[in-house]
Design a protein that fits this description.
692 residues, mainly alpha, 3 domains, two-stranded antiparallel sheet, globular, transport
């Protein structure tokens, strides 16, 4: 590309600019209107209760107001037990509680005790009222189940209460049960059907323990996040005044933190020597829901120690080879510190982007749920004997007077699943795809709006010859209003390109998931290559968009022109880009690592009761890793929010710095706008003028 020429009228971000990429702006507005229409249609037809509450065989919700089953305060869906394994689909009814005893209908009817029959009747269909009806007819008409077994509620459904006692599988206190037809069956026959329920039950117990840990430690977690926020803010404030010292202190502290981690892992590894069970390998142990088990293995601490040693060596080698370039990175950080110091509101601006992203996520998630639950109840014919209408759709309202009941007396019209055959239901998958696409587009637009706003504010700082006197009164607000007024189309264009790539990546991930069971190695290889290529393409487009937004904020050009100019500018200074920019990013990463590592270690010692001063204050926990991981992840997000502002500031100043070198030569007519420190570092001067 051609280097930028000197322009005597250029004094920073151009205020006299026009609207760019109007077509993309119109497309975005139309897409948002369509997205709102899709949401309204989905909210009109959808019903999230379908994925939360169970239904009976007629598709009616259990215990919900406005349905015949609203009287059941504790609804569960319990299937009728069929006498034959090949029988039709079991009937489901809503009950107020799960059965707590073994009982067959024949035995309940034979005792002639009103209490037994009254207890049994609550597990019969609601229409069954005649307790004097012949029991054979009751079972034939499926008014009541043939037998009841002790059950427990899980996910609002009743499952057999299976437990193991001394290696013996039992339901209730028995190993066999009467199936209601005079045959004794082993309870192991119920085990296969309850396996998935047991997995869900174990997961539920794990989730409950984690929830209990959050209830007793939430305020300490908040305190930890506040400490991370204060540490991030103090770190940034100190960078403004002591950038060089803080960078070197940060580097030394990270090395020391990693060194302590290596030492701690070695001490734990040595302490476990000779203890029973500590030499078991991770592969032999397998996956365990109680993660504390892994901390009693020497191999776990050995793996931690090796990983930390590798990270330590890599960081030291990078610092040795890049030590000369670190000085230039420090100069950029100092300049960014001054810029952020003059625009302190920029540190809070990521909250605006975060709020917009939360809106996008909430709208996408709610629309997805309503779309997935907007199907209608589909009823099908179920029968015991051979019937030509078996499996066909039917209508419960007219089923009893149809020809089906005449040709197949034992046939029933029961709820099968949620579906639909209308035009709306046939295009549900298209609407879901549109929902995902719009989520990516709007989320990328929100991120782009934040980037171009920060870029405009920091560019106004760099191109102010007398800082901060020549800066606008409200640089952040000015940049934000310019971005929305003139460049909504350009931001939509960049976000659209990125959204298309991300949708393709999601589609490839979906295909990869579907092909996992396939045995086509060529297809898997091709899919892996495509995933890798689109991952690289997404990274490149993000990098190009970021720099294009900076050019848009400064010059007010359209997206394609800005992307081209930014790309050629970076290519003309590829060595500076590869070294200075990436070294700065690396230093920011070290800063995040220091904050997260320090807060994480503090949380570890606190929640494991290893700080004697506050030993009695730390709450008792089921899994101490729950609050520790929460604090670590939260600290990283907080530090990332603070440093993302710094990162955008450095990138903006770096592009402006490159433009400054190309446009100006330090003469009285073409003075440099860079700070005195950068001029001194690069041995540049403004001839005939004092440094600003």
């Amino acid at each position: 590309g051609t280097p930028q020429k000197y322009d005597p009228t250029f004094k920073g971000p151009i205020y006299d600019r026009g609207c760019t990429d109007i077509v993309c702006c119109v497309l975005l507005v139309l897409a948002i209107v369509g997205y709102v229409v899709v949401g309204v249609v989905a909210w009109t037809h959808g019903d999230p209760r379908k994925v939360i509450y169970p239904t009976d065989s007629r598709g009616q919700f259990c215990g919900q107001q406005g349905t015949p089953n609203e009287g059941f305060w504790d609804p569960h869906s319990i299937p009728f037990s069929s006498p034959h394994p090949t029988s039709s689909r079991p009937i489901q009814i809503c009950v107020s509680k799960c059965p707590d005893r073994y009982l067959t209908y024949l035995s309940a009817y034979g005792t002639r005790q009103p209490g037994e029959l009254e207890y049994y009747r609550q597990f019969c269909v609601p229409e069954f009222q005649n307790l004097q009806k012949d029991p054979i007819s009751v079972l034939k008409d499926k008014d009541c189940p043939a037998m009841l077994i002790p059950s427990t509620p899980l996910a609002r459904r009743c499952f057999p209460a299976i437990r193991a006692k001394k290696g013996v599988i039992m339901v209730g206190n028995k190993t066999t049960y009467d199936d209601g037809h005079g045959r004794q069956r082993n309870v192991t026959e119920l085990l296969e059907g309850a396996k998935k329920a047991n997995v869900v039950l174990e997961t539920r117990q794990l989730a409950m323990k984690i929830f209990e840990d959050y209830t007793v430690s939430w305020y300490w977690i908040i305190i930890g996040l506040v400490i991370a926020m204060v540490a991030s803010f103090i770190f940034i404030v100190l960078l403004r005044f002591l950038a060089g010292i803080m960078v070197w202190v940060m580097i030394v502290m990270v090395i020391l933190v990693l060194g302590y981690g290596i030492f701690h892992c070695y001490m734990e590894y040595a302490k476990l020597k000779g203890e029973a069970g500590s030499d078991v390998s991770l592969t032999d142990l397998g996956f365990q829901t109680d993660l504390r088990v892994y901390l009693h293995l020497r191999q776990t601490w050995l793996a931690f120690m090796i990983i930390l040693c590798i990270v330590e060596v890599v960081i030291i080698l990078l610092l040795i080879f890049l030590r000369k370039r670190i000085l230039i990175a420090i100069a950029l950080i100092k300049e960014a510190s001054r810029a952020v110091g003059h625009i302190m509101m920029s540190l809070l601006f990521p909250l605006c982007t975060f709020f917009l992203l939360c809106l996008c996520i909430a709208y996408w998630a709610s629309t997805a749920v309503f779309l997935s639950t907007s199907n209608e109840a589909v009823y099908k014919v179920f029968n015991e004997s051979a019937c030509p209408f078996s499996g066909q759709t039917c209508q419960p309202e007219t089923f009893n007077v149809s020809n089906v009941t005449k040709l197949c007396p034992d046939a029933q019209c029961l709820f099968a699943f949620y579906g639909g055959e209308s035009v709306y239901h046939r295009y549900l998958i298209v609407l879901q795809f549109f929902n995902v696409f719009m989520f990516f587009w709007l989320a990328n637009f929100a991120i782009a709006l934040g980037q171009v706003t920060l870029a405009g504010a920091f560019a106004s700082y760099y191109w102010a010859f007398k800082k901060p006197d020549d800066m606008p009164a409200f640089p952040l607000f000015s940049a934000f209003s310019r971005a929305l007024r003139y460049h909504t189309g350009s931001l939509a264009f960049g976000a659209l390109i990125l959204a298309i790539i991300q949708v393709i990546r999601v589609t490839l991930e979906y295909l990869d998931h579907r092909l996992k069971a396939a045995d086509n190695k060529f297809a898997k290889f091709l899919l892996s290559c495509l995933k890798c290529c689109f991952w690289c393409l997404e990274k490149f487009i993000k990098f190009l968009n970021r720099n294009a937004y900076i050019m848009i904020a400064v010059y007010g050009t359209n997206f394609c022109t800005s992307a081209r100019n930014a790309f050629f500018l970076l290519m003309r200074n590829i060595i500076r880009v590869a070294v200075l920019d990436k070294v700065t990013d690396f230093l920011f990463f070290l800063g995040k690592l220091l904050i997260v590592g320090s807060v994480g270690i503090l949380a570890f010692f606190f929640f494991t009761h290893r700080i004697k001063l506050v030993q009695d204050t730390a709450p008792p926990l089921n899994y101490y890793w729950v609050p520790i991981l929460t604090v670590i992840v939260g600290s990283y997000l907080i530090a990332h929010g603070f440093f993302s502002v710094y990162g955008m500031c450095v990138d903006t100043l770096f592009l402006c710095f490159l433009e400054d070198l190309e446009r100006n030569d330090g003469s009285a007519e073409k003075p440099y706008f860079m700070s005195p420190d950068l001029k001194k570092l690069l041995k540049k001067t403004n001839k005939g003028q004092p440094d600003a």
